[in-house]
Write a structure and sequence with these properties.
The chain is an all-alpha fold. It is about 55% helix and about 0% strand. It is built from 9 helices and no strands. α1 packs across α3 and α1 crosses α6. The longest helix is centred in the first third of the chain and has 25 residues. The N and C termini lie far apart (about 40 Å).
């Protein structure tokens, strides 16, 4: 498989991605234990395909964990992480979003969906524009901490992000960076 670990835009994002990946691994290990399936076995691979072919029957962490363990027959990358031109990866990337999303206790309704989407964007960067990536990647640690921006707050952040060039989007590490660049002196060039 040709996957490499990306250089995340911030330490906070790297830590958050690591935490969520650990949750995926734990959810997968629990499923294997419940079904008495040996890790690394042909049965585990078969279970992975069963999960990704029926994502609505599983929590999103289990679906994403299964995707991480499968190889795309078309492009030979980890399933969903192949090039944007890979139809099989694109299909599985899109259907992953029908998996179950149950909000954690004491978080705003919709927080789990926001985490799930932001995580998918961060880990599948080639499928999204620089503007989409920066917004989802910067908000992910905030979401995991239990917050959820209001529509007004999200729209204000998007308006600032839309003032950035694609190159600037890939360079920022915080919302303060976005604000500084978006409100900077030379914005008339757009």
């Amino acid at each position: 498989m040709a996957d490499t670990t990306p250089a995340w835009r911030s330490t906070a994002l790297a830590q958050t991605i690591g935490e969520i990946e650990a949750q995926l691994d734990l959810a997968w290990a629990r499923l294997l234990g419940e079904l008495n399936v040996a890790p690394g076995s042909a049965d585990e691979t078969a279970l992975g395909w069963l999960v990704v072919d029926n994502p609505a029957e599983h929590d999103w962490r289990i679906v994403d964990a299964a995707l991480d363990r499968l190889t795309c027959a078309q492009c030979r990358s980890t399933l969903t992480r192949g090039p944007a031109t890979c139809q099989r990866c694109t299909y599985h990337h899109e259907v992953r979003f029908v998996a179950r999303e149950v909000d954690r206790p004491n978080v705003p309704a919709g927080n789990e969906h926001a985490i799930r989407v932001s995580f998918a964007v961060a880990r599948n960067r080639i499928r999204y524009s620089p503007r989409a990536r920066v917004g989802y990647e910067l908000i992910l640690p905030v979401l995991v901490a239990g917050a959820l921006p209001t529509t007004k707050e999200a729209q204000a952040a998007k308006a600032l992000i839309n003032k950035l060039t694609p190159e600037e989007c890939d360079q920022v590490a915080t919302f303060a960076d976005v604000e500084r660049l978006a409100l900077g002196a030379n914005r008339e060039r757009r």
